[in-house]
User: Fold this.
Amino acid sequence: MADTLFERSTNASWVVVFKALTTTHHICIYGNERFIQYLASRTSLFNLSNFIDKTGTHGYDMSTFIRRYARYLNEKAYAYRAMAFDFTRVKKGAEGVMRTMATEKLLKAMPALQTQVDTLLEFDVHPKDLNNGIINAAFMLLFKDLIKLFASYNDGIINLLEKYFKMKKSECKDSLEIYKKFLTRVTKIAEFMKIAEQVGVDKNDIPDISYAPSSILESLETHMNSLEGKKG
Assistant:
């Protein structure tokens, strides 16, 4: 099935290609995990970085989103390849995968998760662009992924903060960078959720995104400075 979808993605028509990508994403979310395992094991993934359909203005506009969407789906497969699990499928919460992960693995997982979140946010769609059934379907699948990615991201950050003050200096340095990046991503995630609300997603389905108090960052930086022997 995956091979057939990859074949469809080499079509010249934006409609066929976009539908192939949306179908691939749909199976990643709702299908058997073996599907994404197979994607992760392939030597080549979607090769659409130069895709353009010049058969009309609509095709031209949609080509931009196809290129971004393919990049996200590839990144989703790369993250699975790196971690051997899907960030959107793993158990969340206090007993979840990201909350209970050991420091070394966590410091490998968080950058992979951050890259996947970034690639999703780079879809960068506005309500006026959501003007046909295919891009709307893609947007809803991205929205569903983002909610789950954000939950994993949050779990990872909580775990990181709980471990931070017992870490080695080099680990603290990496963790501080991860936390700073998290703060900027939260703003972008909130903007994506606003768009979902504007295009009619039920408010009850949109998670409440609260911002961390600045005192957390200050105490992390103070600790880092003390490790480096700087005066706070």
